[in-house]
Description:
By secondary structure, the chain is mainly beta. The two termini are 28 Å apart. Helix content is 4%, strand content 38%. Strands 8-9-10-11-6-5-12 form a seven-stranded mixed beta sheet. A three-stranded antiparallel beta sheet has the order 3-4-7, with no helix packed on it. Strands 1-2 form a two-stranded antiparallel ribbon. The longest helix is centred in the middle third of the chain and has 6 residues, at 45-50.
Amino acid sequence: MTLTLTEVDGVIIQPRHQASCHCGAVQFELQLPVGLVDVRRCDCSLCRRRGAIVASVPLAAIRILRGADSLRLYQFNTKTAKHYFCGHCGIYTHHQRRSNPQQYGFNVACLEGINPLKISNIPTYNGVEHPADQVK
Length: 136
């Protein structure tokens, strides 16, 4: 099941929606022409701890407006996924997916005016049993 949303709690998802970390050092714009696509959680070891609700966009759909030098990279395990967070406030902003390296997953909570806690029935991706982690 995939979840696509054009609004959250009455707030319309804009085709070009502004986003930022908590302190504002990292500001970015997302191209969301059909709204939030593939809204989900993940139960892998990192996402369980991070607790973020994410949505998906193609790599070209994120544009860092300010603070690229404030972004820090975290990688683990296969080092395929690239997880970015603000080096000042620590907020996770986005990551290049391991399951689809042509996409970014982004933190819905970073979207201007959006409260992800108002989203119900969010599917959970089975990151614990990711195919790349299975013993061959």
